Amino acid sequence: MPQTADVLIPLALDTAYSYAVPAGLVLAEGDVVQIPLGPREIAGVVWGVEERASGGSNLRPVTGLIEAPPLSEPLRRLVDWLARYTLAPKGSALAMALRLPDESARTETMRVGVRSSGKPPARPTAARAKALAVAADGVVRGKSTLAKEAGVSLSVVDGLIDDGALEAVALVPEPVALPPDPDFLSTAHLSEAQAEAAKQLNAAFDAGPPSPRTQGESRDDIVVGALSPKGEGEGSSSEKTLPVAPPHHRSARLALDKEGSALSPRAGRGDAHDASRTILLEGVTGSGKTEVYFEAVAECVRRGRQALVLMPEIALTAQFLDRFAARFGVRPATWHSGIGGRRRERLRAGVAAGDVSVVVGARSALFLPFRQLGLIVVDEEHESAYKQEDGVHYHARDMAVVRGKLEGCPVVLASATPSIETRVNAQRGRYGRIVLPERFGGRRLPDITAIDMRLDKPERGRFLAPPMVAAVKKAVADGEQALLFLNRRGYAPLTLCSACGHRYQCRNCSTWLVEHRFRKALVCHHCGYTERKPEACVECGAFDHLTPCGPGVERIAEEAAELFPDKRIIVLSSDFPGGTERLRQELEAVAAGECDIVIGTQLVAKGHNFPHLTLVGVLDADIGLTSGDPRAAERTFQLLQQVTGRAGRGERPGRALVQTFQPDHPVIAALLSGDAERFYEEEIAQRENAGLPPFGRLAALIVSAAEREVAEAHGQAMARVADPPAGIMVLGPAEAPLALIRGRYRFRLLVKTDRAIDIQSYLRDWLGRSPKPRGNVKVAIDVDPQSF
Ligand code: ADP
Ligand code: ZN
């Protein structure tokens, strides 16, 4: 019987389109096909097939099958989930999972080579002779390679194949990645605590439901970091109109916190089995979490399944790959934005065929077509780099939990400083929790001391307080390494003219231009706009009056160079000349001890292992605390814990000095006392009282346009039809925190709901009755925004 195929197209479209399947072609869901769309041909994925009564169809036919790995059922459900959760068009969600090979890569994927058949061509020409000469040496990988090597056009090669002078042969390609050996290094070297943690972790492979694919609608009770798309079983849709629930009684909350794994009164049905499948691996910096989750990777490979390890991109250092190799005998296959087309395709094909058993990758690796995924690890799960802030606004940690559920495999969330969401999910028993409270090898966590900047003032025009200078001096004199941390790129965050007061501002954004002295330029950190630093003020013409205000890392480097002229100093930030590759090399050099003082932004704060580093100096601990963003405390705490945790990971003990104007601020106090529990307790209580995530749901709508009035008017028109029922609050439109970016004015509407409410379905309704954006107006939806 002929078929009709519903094909989802990787464009910003929400529905699949129907096509007739021509006779002779049999399609299955997940197949990648070529289809006509308007005047052009495009690739799409079969989302559904129906048998159709024989006879004519007025549908346009599918053009043909494309040689690309089909999208598995769990991956298709992930796309559905992603679209439903983020409100992105389903086609845009599909685009994340469907990356089609370019021409040259495709020949490689098809594994077809060409060789001479020995038969002379019917019509010998000079071009044909050249192509045959190249093919005479043996099998050439692909037609286009042969054409290129012979310097002839592809049609010459095709002609020779038609003639029978050349023949196509199947190639056995070199493996794209060597198989890791789960038993290369025995587990005997783990510490007792690590071994116990690994054992608990590996219990997850046998826990929980065998496979959700047999469980029908189970995807609706998936609980991710902040929320689930449909309540989570806490309330039926009839509860939608209930007012926001009052905050829990404090004593109840404390009892819950003490209990650790106790279920909260509000924990939903069907949550409990998540605990055994999604596990928070929480261990202080240097506790050896990596070695622990390597054991889970090993177990996964032993079971013949594939493992995915997600990392914030820059953490993919040679150091990490070497550690993997030490454990598994080979380096893992890696996936990140820097991998070239051909390798990307081969890797995708290898992953789809099940030949690649471990992939270590950045967030986009989550959408690879694994054949039999058996484990997902999200390292540094709290990292904001996991949130994609353009296009489809998704959080890779949350989607990892979803994919794990859909694949029926365990998910490990590793962090020294878990996100509040994950902490709460663990406390409420939705996720399991394994704790490594001490550093590996008896090493101590660094002592952390505050330098009160109100009392210990730096010299005029300087930024290092006297006790900081003394500590650095001592460390480097002892042959140790010091890290000075300031989360500000460039030389100075603001430049003004001391004659007329003019401040240098970006012409496209509502931001100050940042001086980059090395490049002799003023740069916008949001849009990249760059201008030469002028000799005279552009406003009043005064010479020598441009004044840098405040420090960036370059300015600290200048100060350090004056203080320690004979020491090797390096500045590491994302501005490092030469790109990511050079930066990685530089990080290796630091790890090898080839420098005395590192001055860096958050880029050096996280995940790295610098064995010679004993002193960490935080130059402005207060920087992130004043932003007014409710997540500021959490983020600052995580960052400061991470950066101070770089100290003392090698033989010698470490210490950290923290310059602050607010030593009594709860975040700083928790950091100094080493009492992370207290921080989490207070922060969680505050979120709960304010009904903020994960205790309430939040979405941001950013309305932007080239003219301020147009953006604002559209935001207001949307607000007029917001019509929120009880339990939902709509705030705004108000100017977004960055009111102008890249020449677009931005207004923000915030939606805040009780946790029991299905925020997605409210948003869908609201958007449905809102005026359609016209002209250059855009409305971006960010469910669970990271900053709010
Ligand atoms: P974390 O990720 O928890 O901060 P790491 O996994 O990076 O910690 O481990 C910290 C350091 O301890 C690393 O240098 C690592 O090589 C070392 N280490 C951890 N576990 C072991 C082990 N079992 N044997 C030898 N070295 C270990
Ligand atoms: Zn700008």
UniProtKB/TrEMBL annotation:
Signal peptide: none annotated. Residues 270-436 form the Helicase ATP-binding domain. Keywords: ATP-binding, DNA replication, DNA-binding, Helicase, Hydrolase, Isomerase, Metal-binding, Nucleotide-binding, Primosome, Zinc. The keyword Iron does not apply. Residues 226-251 are annotated as: Disordered. The keyword ATP-binding applies. Zn(2+) 1 binds at residues 497, 500, 537, 540. SMART domains: DEXDc, HELICc. InterPro entries: DEAD/DEAH_box_helicase_dom, Helicase_ATP-bd, Helicase_C-like, P-loop_NTPase, PriA, PriA_3primeBD, PriA_3primeBD_sf, PriA_C. CDD domains: DEXHc_priA (cd17929). Transmembrane segments: none annotated. Binds 2 zinc ions per subunit. Its cofactor is Zn(2+). Initiates the restart of stalled replication forks, which reloads the replicative helicase on sites other than the origin of replication. Recognizes and binds to abandoned replication forks and remodels them to uncover a helicase loading site. Promotes assembly of the primosome at these replication forks. HAMAP family: PriA. Belongs to the helicase family. PriA subfamily. This is Replication restart protein PriA.
